[in-house]
Automatic annotation (TrEMBL), chain A:
Belongs to the TrpB family. PANTHER family: TRYPTOPHAN SYNTHASE, TRYPTOPHAN SYNTHASE-RELATED. GO terms for molecular function: tryptophan synthase activity. Tetramer of two alpha and two beta chains. It comes from the Bacteria. This is Tryptophan synthase beta chain. Residues 56-378 form the Tryptophan synthase beta chain-like PALP domain. Pathway: Amino-acid biosynthesis; L-tryptophan biosynthesis; L-tryptophan from chorismate: step 5/5. Pfam families: PALP (PF00291). Keywords: Amino-acid biosynthesis, Aromatic amino acid biosynthesis, Lyase, Pyridoxal phosphate, Tryptophan biosynthesis.
From TrEMBL, chain B:
Keywords: Amino-acid biosynthesis, Aromatic amino acid biosynthesis, Lyase, Tryptophan biosynthesis. This is Tryptophan synthase alpha chain. The keyword Metal-binding does not apply. InterPro entries: Aldolase_TIM, RibuloseP-bd_barrel, Trp_synthase_alpha_AS, Trp_synthase_suA. Belongs to the TrpA family. Pfam families: Trp_syntA. It comes from Pedobacter psychroterrae. One of its GO terms (cellular component) is cytosol. The alpha subunit is responsible for the aldol cleavage of indoleglycerol phosphate to indole and glyceraldehyde 3-phosphate.
Length: 393, 255
């Protein structure tokens, strides 16, 4: 079985490009060119140079000794939180801005939820001198003021999405509308492994640097590039796809994707897509999404803005349906406690998104000696308000 | 020959009106259809609402949200449309996004359309390839036309392919844009419309997106078999005087 995209843009039953004709030329242009551009030697050279000198890669693979002792396994943290701009998002925006330049695009648009992808996009636009417009839900603009200020300082225009729930999915709708209205000179940098083909594949390729490095680092540190478990949190699923990528075809490695249960999967305030969702179409691809009986998209909830999304990428839907990945969920409370635990045992304040993956360690049973890699996808600076309120700091 | 094909055989300067089912009030759908036919509309496109309508501008988005809040869904729409053909004889299309159709079941959807006398569908985010490979036989069995969109950026090869798959008309977008913006027939747009007519397509064409006045309607008709009005009509609907507002709007186009 293949876990990767086929020539029609599908992963098993999922994927495709369910887009109105107005978006077809843009998406088709990308589809025809993305692999040639990415595989070009000059592109690769420039991409890797920037990842090294600008992003600060390779990110360390850190054996968390005190955490390992507590859980009776070797817990390795893949430190994406140490990247420039504080999360894995920059791997993708560096790749896509170079690609946009090769396509001759002059204007960049993006959607953002918590603002991490917006900041990562505004950053690369500043780096390359391209115009940048970021769509962000009106509600998120209010809850993520520091990131809004960062984007503005970086020269981006932040446009509030005022339709629907005024959060990430609506920001995505607005970005798609912008792209429809600006069909020639604009590239849309989608921030996750979602959207019409080829976005899920392309973003997955750019993020795959995470598992590529991890394998090398595991060899150096343990002599074996096959960990027993790989864990990552999933909203749309880009850090998870990057973390899984080079392990997917190695069935000995167990892949665990951690979704946000919010206040509990049955609470009505959750983002546990594989538990609550059904197959359908969202934002241009066939996948699994939270929806009503009539196919209307349901509003998700999570304390973590980055996981507050009603769908998952189509490749994740395929890994879930085939059983190749195990999809689990963690509540708001469990994730915040796991964030505090990592902070006090290892001196690392994680993003609440990443804390979801860490929280699942509590629910696993180890014999001792297993190698476990957790993707620490981002740092917690942006979440200090939430931590402060929750723990009365 | 269905009602839709018959219309294009017999008429020119066809006026098609789009509106959202379940808006402004839940039970208005058939009443609006009736009023539109009485006031001279040639063709109706009834939108079934979706929570995330990416191809639409603010007016149709807002009407969709209101319709959903009112409780509209496909099951209810088909119930309301059971009375359609007793009152309305012009062709009727359903227009909406693919996810509600997938959840209803494409086969169930097509059968329900046929049962209530709907003549075809416009599902902008249903890809051509998936339609051709998976759903075209189901549409055909139920006598439904599937209407495709083309934009100024659609390549000639793709237009030919769309023409081959179409059996009603082809929906020409006046520009690559979301709904509800004004049609400006620039030299580029005019060249695009002329390019389309030179392709000698087997299907008739209708121009949509940005038609809001008699002037823009007439302009569009000079390039195609007719034109489609959506946002401007939806905006004009007045819940307090539904029939009156429909008549007043249509006066401008069919005096």
């Amino acid at each position: 079985m293949s876990y990767f995209v086929n020539e029609k843009g599908y992963y098993g039953d999922f994927g495709g490009a369910y887009i109105p004709e107005m978006l077809y030329p843009n998406v088709e242009e990308l589809r025809q060119n993305y692999l040639n551009i990415i595989n070009d030697a000059d592109f690769q050279k420039e991409f890797h140079q920037l990842l090294k000198d600008y992003v600060g890669r390779p990110s360390p693979l850190y054996l968390a000794k005190r955490l390992s002792k507590k859980y009776n396994a070797n817990i390795f943290l893949k430190r994406e939180d140490l990247n420039h701009t504080g999360a894995h998002k920059i791997n993708n925006t560096i790749g896509q801005i170079l690609l946009a330049e090769k396509l001759g695009k002059k204007r960049i648009i993006a959607e953002t939820g918590a603002g991490q992808h917006g900041v990562a996009t505004a950053t690369v636009c500043a780096l390359r001198g391209l115009e940048c417009v970021v769509y962000m839900g009106e509600v998120d603009i209010k809850r993520q003021a520091p990131n809004v200020a960062r984007m503005k300082m970086l020269g981006a225009t932040v446009v509030p999405a005022t339709s629907g729930s005024k959060t990430l999915k609506d920001a995505t709708n607005e970005a798609m509308r912008d792209w429809i209205n600006n069909p020639v000179d604009t590239h849309y940098i989608i921030g996750s492994v979602v959207g019409p083909h080829p976005y899920p594949d392309m973003v997955g390729i750019f993020q795959s640097i995470i598992s590529e490095e991890t394998k090398k680092q595991l060899i150096e540190q343990t002599g074996n590039d096959q960990p027993d478990y790989v864990l990552a949190c999933v909203g749309g699923g880009s850090n998870a796809m990057g973390m899984f990528y080079h392990f997917i075809d190695d069935e000995k490695v167990k892949l665990i994707a951690v979704e946000a249960a919010g206040r509990g999967v049955d609470s009505g305030f959750s983002a546990a897509t594989t538990t609550l969702g059904k197959e359908g179409v969202l934002h241009g691809s066939r996948s699994i999404l939270m929806q009503t009986h009539d196919g209307q998209v349901v509003e998700p909830h999570s304390v973590s803005a980055g996981l507050d999304y009603p769908g998952i990428g189509p490749q994740h839907a395929h890994l879930f349906k085939t059983g190749r990945g195990k999809y689990v969920s963690i509540t708001d409370d469990e994730s915040l406690q796991a964030g505090l635990l990592l902070t006090q045992m290892e001196g690392i304040i994680p993003a609440i998104e990443s804390a979801h993956a860490l929280a699942y360690l509590e629910k696993m049973e180890f014999k001792g000696g297993e190698n476990v890699v957790v993707c620490l996808s981002g740092r917690g600076d942006k979440d200090m308000d939430t931590y402060m309120k929750y723990f009365n700091l | 020959m269905n009602r839709l094909q018959n219309l294009f055989e017999t008429k020119r300067n066809i006026l098609s009106i789009y509106y959202t089912a379940g808006y402004p009030s839940l039970g208005d759908t058939v009443a609006i259809a009736e009023a539109l036919e009485e006031s001279g509309a040639d063709l109706l496109e009834i939108g079934f609402p979706y929570s995330d309508p990416v191809a639409d501008g603010p007016i149709i988005q807002a009407s969709s949200k209101q319709a959903l809040d009112n409780g509209m869904d496909l099951k209810l729409l088909f119930e309301h449309l059971k009375g359609l053909r007793a009152k309305v004889s012009i062709p009727v299309l359903l227009m909406g996004y693919v996810n509600p159709v997938l959840q209803f079941g494409v086969e169930n959807f097509c059968k329900a359309c046929a049962e209530v006398g709907v003549d075809g569908c416009i599902v902008p985010d249903l890809p051509m390839t998936e339609y051709e490979e998976l759903y075209a036989p189901i549409f055909k069995e139920n006598g439904l036309s599937n209407i495709f969109l083309i934009t100024p950026q659609t390549s000639p090869e793709r237009i030919q392919k769309i023409d081959g798959l179409s059996n009603g008309f082809i929906y020409l977008l006046s520009s690559s844009a979301t709904t509800g913006q004004n049609l400006q027939v620039s030299d580029n747009t005019a060249a695009y419309f002329s390019r389309i007519s030179e392709l000698k397509l087997k299907n008739p064409t209708m121009i949509g997106f940005g038609i809001s006045s008699k002037e823009t309607f007439d302009k569009a008709c000079s390039y195609a078999n007719g034109a489609i009005i959506g946002s401007a009509f939806v905006k004009s609907l007045d819940a307090a005087d539904l029939k009156g507002s429909v008549k007043a709007f249509m006066q401008k186009f069919k005096p």
